[in-house]
Known about the structure:
Two copies of one chain form a homodimer.
Chain A: E1 13-16, E2 23-24, E3 30-31, H1 35-44, E4 49-52, H2 60-69, E5 79-80, H3 82-92, E6 97-100, E7 119-122, H4 131-143, E8 149-151, E9 157-160, E10 163-166, H5 168-179, E11 184-185, H6 191-200, E12 208-212, H7 215-224, E13 228-232, E14 251-253, H8 256-271
Parallel strand pairs in A: 1-4, 1-12, 4-5, 6-7, 7-8, 8-11, 12-13, 13-14
Antiparallel strand pairs in A: 2-3, 9-10
Helix pairs in contact in A: 1-8, 4-5
Amino acid sequence: xxxxxxxxxxxxxxxLDVYGVLYDSxxxxxxxDGSAEAVKKLKSAGIxxxxxxxxxSKTSQMVAAALTSLGFEISLDEVFTPIPAVKQxxxxxxxxxxxxxxxxxxxxxxxxxxxxxxxxxxGDATTAFTYTRLNSAFRLLMQQPGIPLITMGTGKYYKxxxxxxxDVGPFTKGLEYACGVEATVIGKPSKEFxxxxxxxxxxDPQDAVMIGDDIVSDISGAQAxxxxxxxxxxxxxxxxDEPHPSIKPDxxxxxxxHAVDDFLTxxxxxxx
Amino acid sequence: xxxxxxxxxxxxxxxLDVYGVLYDSxxxxxxxDGSAEAVKKLKSAGIxxxxxxxxxSKTSQMVAAALTSLGFEISLDEVFTPIPAVKQxxxxxxxxxxxxxxxxxxxxxxxxxxxxxxxxxxGDATTAFTYTRLNSAFRLLMQQPGIPLITMGTGKYYKxxxxxxxDVGPFTKGLEYACGVEATVIGKPSKEFxxxxxxxxxxDPQDAVMIGDDIVSDISGAQAxxxxxxxxxxxxxxxxDEPHPSIKPDxxxxxxxHAVDDFLTxxxxxxx
Lengths: 272, 272
């Protein structure tokens, strides 16, 4: 159980991924064993935490509601997802987006003029990723060279209750290749996204840990900001993913509860 | 008119791309001005030629028929497209494909057992590139690590009568990224594909020229085989594509007729 004890030193805040760490999503959501208990233990110990998720098929409100219904003690102000960050970016840059997102969150972009678009926004759109829409995005990017291709993360895939699902990343890479452009990432692994979550709980990167199942978006992204990254063996984790050829998590843990128990045991010992 | 005269020396065979060189495809196909005449002139001069196309939404028979109906003197044995090459590859390797291609050519794969697939085949599928099908391909590639991802080319896009259209390349790149694999390319720019076309007319690479509108698939691909590559300024060519940052065509020409006239003028002078 002491597998990640050594990295617990000086931790004052937790960043938690949602899918694959707190619960597996899908036609019916399923909490991952022990994760609700782990969150409860962190709160009882007075350790601040933030949900740091690339979920773009749900609003932050929907994520908070889903977590609550699954028994997690999480409030809306603890949830960081890309949609609010993208909306802020669009407002600041006075952009008119061509949006390809899950129909469940399309209304989030109603405040923006979407006629005559001058940027493209991609989310985890699943079946809304049609050829016709991708081709419309492609034509916009080619007709107006230099306009932003904004993507809510670069994740390759996530694990749904029904199986593994292509995430927004492969569609982003396809458009990048077609147009010869580089996307603007809003969400993990972008530094701004991690820093906004850390800043909201007033914790410095070196005092925080990110726990996730995505070795690139979660672990490598956090480490690039100076945050320790712990890889869970739940969600889309597969034994053949370990070790990763180029990314070295600060620790591997079987699940979130394991990490939290380990952290709390270590912290208690430091106090005695 | 002598812009590419210097590269005509020693040419004994022509490889011609179809879309953007002979005609622009779409809801109604439109021959490119002078191209039918150019083909006729080459034939009158006894110069062998082959159609070397990555078209995977039409069979070779359909390409030959389309060309004939547009006034081109082209016979079926002069047409090289990826579908026959892919079918040969599948037979040789006893593969059961999961196929994402244009519905117009799906029947071409009827001879193969498509239950329990052990490879993925991608063509220019346009609206058949649905999330559901791409995700099924993705799951197969992840569940059976090492099985081939076969793609009929890596083209970024092509020009349709109705506008530019995403080609198979971006979807291939997306799946490569998601799975961490490299696709097997059957079609341009693979060397085997160019060599098969050259071999059929008994012309060595150094004695041949490839004329195309795709700087990567046509020009760079041909040059990698030792074939001279001429970029036409028709089809999807855009002025801002010239010069290319890394690929240097042996010549640029306004259109196919320009190249052929130039070649024939040069050849006539050599004989006098």
